[in-house]
Amino acid sequence: MTGRLFCCALLLALCRVTVSLPEVSAQNEEKCEQLCVKNQGRGSNLETSCDESCRLEQCNKGCAGRNRSLESSCKQFCMDEGPSSQQGERWYCVIGCNIAVSRYVQQLREELQLGAPTLVPDSLTADSVTIRWLAPPLPHVMLLVQYKYSDLPGEWIFYQPDVKLNASQVTITGLKPYTKYQFRVLWAVAASQEPLPGAPSHPISTLARGRPASAPEALTVAAPDAHHVSLRWLPPSFPGGPLVSYLLVVRAGGQRTAAEIDPHLTSHVLGGLQPNTNYTVTVSAINKDGAGPPAESWVRTPALAAEVSTQERPMLIIGSGDLILRLKMNVTSAPRTVYRADKGVNITGTAMDVSSAQLFLATSAGRVLRLPLDGSASRPVDVTPVGLAGQPALLALDWLAGALYGLVAAPGGDWTVQRWLLDDPKASDTGLRFAARPAHMAVDPQNGYFYYSVSEPSPDAGLFRCSFDNMTSAERVASGADLNFATFVIDHTNFSVLVPGREKNTVFALSMISWSRADIRSGAVRPQYDGMLALAEHARTLCWSRGQHIYLETYRADRRAHYANQFMFSQTRLPVISLHVQHPASQPRPAPASPPRELQVVFHSGRALARWQPPALSGLAGPAAWSHWTYQLRLTDAAGRSRDVENITGTEVTVEKLAPDTQYTLQVRALSVSGLGPWSAPFRGRTLEHHLDASGPFLLWSTEVGLLRSDVIGDRPTVLVSRASFNASDKSGIHVSDLTWCDDIMYLATNDSRVYSHDLRTGELRQLGDAVQATALAVDWIGRRLYWSSPKQQLIYGAPLPDDDVTSKRDVTAGTPLPFFTAARHLRVDALRGVLYWATGHTVEASYLNGERRRHLYKTGIFSGKQVRKYS
Q1: Helix axes 87-111, 74-81, angle to 10 degrees
Q2: How far apart, in Å, do the first and last CA atoms of the chain sit?
Q3: What pLDDT was estimated at residue 4?
Q4: Which of 203, 617, 782, 796 would bridge 621 by S-S if both were Cys, CB 3.0 to 4.6 A apart?
Q5: What is the model's pTM?
Q6: Cα distances (angstroms) measured from residue 618 to each of 267, 525, 560, 737
Q7: Bridge-partner residues for 246, per DSSP?
Q8: Which domains does the chain have, with CATH numbers?
Q9: Boundaries of each Fibronectin type-III domain copy (predicted)?
Q10: CB environment 642-666: b (16+ within 10 A), e (fewer)
């Protein structure tokens, strides 16, 4: 499961704590009374005999009853204080009480430091923990405990509502073995207010027990070629204990291929498969108690690709001293000199771009040159990048991104690796530095890795790898005195790196999958592999140099043996420093092996906006692996007529000229010069009914900039109201939290509870008075009334809309409260039926627009762990 976590939510029960009450400052009482004066006009049009002085008296009575209301509610307190008083009088008492309670809880929220619970020693088991905490001096408090998974996505959830617990300690049961949790205590001071959350505990892990309870997550499978399957996954959420391995199984009919790999790995490639075959793939996590449930997927290997054209014969490019030679990969071929450096200048490094038939040279004169290999120019071009910080030595090419990496001798004596684009030669520092010169370097752009080697006698001898996006963090993937790290070559076809032996006269293949080694030339006849300085490979045939001598092997199938043959020419008087095979197979361009993900489409009447995520990376790919695919989008209408949108270079596209009120099915696939990937899952939708004009419909959305307007697919956004337009002392954090409209007037509530009207015709923005404090808005467009909710006062107000004549706008501050108390967070009006709907955190309710016939449509416990977020 990715991003999905099923959590069992339970509430921890409530325990009354008898402690001393903090002194209430006279300033807070005075503020409550001031607010009573400010609110005494609210509801003056209700049918009640409570005049102005009565309203103020009742409101002040509610202010004074704050402490007693914490035991029950403001409504209960006011009824107890005036059992024979009229409803209007009690109503003003409740207003004052709500003001006092809201201010009291807000003061506690700002000033009280609630500490984190801690683990009780020796209480930890595989499915339970006991935590304890210090109780603050609060009366009538209800304690709640929440937990969440420390290493997994998810919200805080409550624990056991029906268990009475000690005021400072509780044992939490029903937990998952070997899982990290965090806990916190909430202090419910008043039933009408959100609880005060304490600080979360440090992560606490339960003990190990049993097999993994869940399968590995986010399994993605792809077939990069006809014989391999690539897998990538995430560890299981509930492993039950430390993992010892993963079991990977690929099945087709009676064929079964399996591998057990180390638990720190989350990707793999399985080989030896058949072309054009459906395979079922499973991955299971294993701990000391056994295997957990498997994650399962399926994949089809592609048909066997045609062999690379034999019409394009491989050519060997040799760099030696001041010479560049070119010849056929045939031991009887005679070389042709394609470049000779100026007198006194030697070639220190080379890199080849097969697709453009160009060779890049680093020279002892401190320059980088570009040499065409097709004979189109007699002299190379100086392409030394701007800002190259030192003497260039080795070169390596990322042929997919068109970028060169250069090993540069810095003036201070260190060596650095710098990078620059071929079409914009400006060198930048990768951050990779060495105290001593590496022996060789190469690039694997398909998987996003840079390789380099350090040779003996350095104590750091070995083969190293780092990701393109984090060049400063290199890992040593191979080492050992039996390997010669003076040179190496990447075998892209077989997912391995070829390294010559040091103690044995052979060549080893280091698997990129597990970095295990295999002797691939143990049966060579009179081997000549020791002392290698340069190495190249093509179609499982090796070519290498030992000093100024170059060898090319041949293979005899009847004897299953390799033979080393020396080229017999005399041009290489100095040691050969580089070998390249000029052939497309040397620099493969990947084809997408999996479909694009998460295709989503938004429809207008005549166009649609489609977005998707790139195909999942292969099992060996790093985070910076090449994924700049081109995409093809296919639209198919209900009649089966298809239309393709080609050459999409990003992951979104707007499709024009669609028919209104028409159903379409869309799919997308990635492609490259090497082939087409599979189609994505289909997305089905329908265009809007008719062609729309500029007046609508449109979307309104709140951003850091302000309130924006766009069409229904998000195109052509414009700023309707900038953040700077709002009347706030701190405009940096202000944003629109709710909005509604009637005709051409927008009504906006901001996160500081102010309410504004905005005229879409004139652009005028005005605040509807300081007395209108709201978090939710709704409009009755038939009765032409604005409704707003003030959760702090626990009231919903209604007032006539301002007149349509902008020169005589009516003030809406004298709103009429509905005759009940509720902390509404969201409001909606059904004007045709005359019904007002609202949602608190735990209910969805409704009444007529005048407040009569109030009823619950949905209700959940306050501490059930569930909350109403939105409704429509």
Answers
A1: 140
A2: 28
A3: 34
A4: 617
A5: 0.76
A6: 8, 38, 33, 42
A7: 261, 285
A8: 1-204 (2.60.40.10), 217-300 (2.60.40.10), 345-436 (2.110.10.10), 597-686 (2.60.40.10), 699-859 (2.120.10.30)
A9: 116-213, 215-305, 595-690
A10: eeebeebeebebebeebeeebebbb
